[in-house]
Amino acid sequence: MENHKINELITLVSTYLNKSEVDLILKAIDFSQTAHNSQVRQSGEPFVNHPIEVAKILAEIKLDSSSIISGLLHDTIEDTTTTAKKIDKIFGNEIGMLVNGLTKINKYSLKVNNLKLGENYRKLLLASTKDLRVILIKLADRLHNMRTIDAFSSEEKKKRIAKETMEIYAPLADRMGMHRIRDELEDLSFKVLNNDARKLIKKRLDEIKEDKVNSFNSISLEFSVLLNQNNLNAEIVGREKTPFSIWKKVQKKRISLEQISDIIGFRIILKNIEDCYKALGIFHKEWNCIPGRFKDYISSPKINKYQSLHTSVIGPNRRPIEIQIRTMQMHEFAERGIASHWKYKSSEKFDSLTWKEYDWLKDLVEIINRNENPEHFFEYTKLQMFQENVFCFTPKGSVIKLPKNATPIDFAYAVHTKIGDTAIGCEINGKTSELQSILHNGDIIKITTSKNKSPSLHWIPITKTGKARSSIRKYWHAKGEEKAQRVKKYNTTLWISLPDQPGKLGEVTTLLG
Ligand code: MN
């Protein structure tokens, strides 16, 4: 038995858990060792190393003792003669429920044809509705499996697991706000799926790091002097970008690798929100900001609750620099996600605390409960759920799911083509609003229609859904040759400058029926 692994875990948990909790963890280590007895992993090492590493990942984000114990026991029902009853009896119902939730999922986890994948994912989400910690433990499990994926000799199997990780677990980690785990899952999968691209980008990043150690430090110093002159105290850290994040940008923006990997990033951590905006003002005053790059995720957080100010400036030596400005609390959340919301010293229950903030998961589970085809469901969530979306409601309470920045026009078309075609105005949350407004999560939208109204061509550039755009085009095509010609021309230009967003909104609406 590898005692140093156990020591590392115990040292880690002792920094934030009390003695009785640590004792229970020791008991679970013992239990897991006995249960997994002589089992070995693919690599030949003792199996029990795996649950211990999983527990360590959970301890690194300072999760509670029940999660850590469940991490230690997560494979016992699945792979050994241990029964759920026995775990209930020794460790109590709470841990029993968590381990049980993880067991059901495991049975499906490596069968990655779409049907099984959908089913697996569905089960994971359903188990998590009882307790969100199920997802966190599953993410830690997957992270350790990805760290050790080289033990498999089958290239095909590795690729299958990496693909599943990239498509399901990394977005899930993102949704839980666990950015560090997400980054590592993505990077490990990227290594399996496209190692050539990864190597290339990594080489470039290493060059920058080596070459620019001085400039990294000198820019840090320049920042800190500037902030000090303005009476701001900040912690400044250089930010290393991951090869995968750069790869994603290269794909999306179709610009060169050099352009993206040459930009260096900094994180500025300040005392409070007021100081964050002050610092932003100072940076923008000192250097030109790059248009279109400023994002205020403090006043409007991401769906996963992430908060920070993002900007890019042409900084010292005319070097493009990305800057993220945040408070310590926001920084903690960005690193640990949902785990940072749980205060281990309070007696508050984990689930009651987190549910309020994770309504999207509840919504998702409600949607999947209405849908019986797991394959269809998987496609749908993969396309829709992990893009930035907004959920809006009809006055009668039906959920309409739309992409970020969608308008009431998109909403009208998502409900029914006829409503879109005849829309003349709308109310958002009871207030008369423009059809061009941007919708937000939870908005209730009432569309006013008029029989003899036609949809406006000016709507096309502001709509965000394929359905709205194609319906407007279709409407005008039906309006005779001359007009149709005009529409066609108009649309061609728009199509190039604003490529239609592929989405299956027609289907989604039916699904939500
Ligand atoms: Mn496992």
Outline the fold blueprint.
Blueprint lengths: L2 H12 L4 H18 L12 H12 L4 H9 L2 H4 L4 H8 L1 H14 L7 H17 L2 H15 L7 H21 L3 H15 L1 H17 L1 H17 L5 E5 L3 H11 L3 H5 L2 E7 L2 H14 L1 E2 L5 E2 L12 E6 L5 E8 H9 L13 H6 L3 H12 L3 H11 L4 E5 L5 E5 L4 H8 L1 H5 L1 E6 L2 E3 L11 E5 L16 H12 L3 H17 L7 H8 L1
Parallel strand pairs: 2-6
Antiparallel strand pairs: 1-2, 3-5, 4-5, 5-6, 7-8, 9-10, 9-11
Provide a compact summary of the structure:
The protein is α+β, with helices and mostly antiparallel strands and 513 residues long. Helices cover 58% and strands 11% of the residues.
Provide structural commentary.
With about 525 residues, the chain is an alpha+beta fold. The chain is about 60% helix and about 10% strand. It is built from 25 helices and eleven strands. It has helices at about 5-15, 20-35, 50-60, 65-75, 75-80, 85-90, 95-105, 115-130, 135-145, 155-175, 180-195, 195-210, 215-230, 245-255, 255-260, 275-285, 330-335, 350-355, 360-370, 375-385, 410-415, 415-420, 465-475, 480-495, 505-510; strands spanning about 235-240, 265-270, 290, 295, 310-315, 320-325, 390-395, 400-405, 425-430, 430-435, 445-450. Strands 1, 2, 3, 4, 5 and 6 form a six-stranded mixed β-sheet that branches. Strands 10-9-11 form a three-stranded antiparallel β-sheet. Helix 1 packs antiparallel against helix 2, helix 8 crosses helix 9 (about 135-145) and helix 12 (about 195-210) crosses helix 14. Mean pLDDT is about 80; it is low at about 105-115, about 345-355 and about 485-513. Bound molecules: manganese (II) ion.
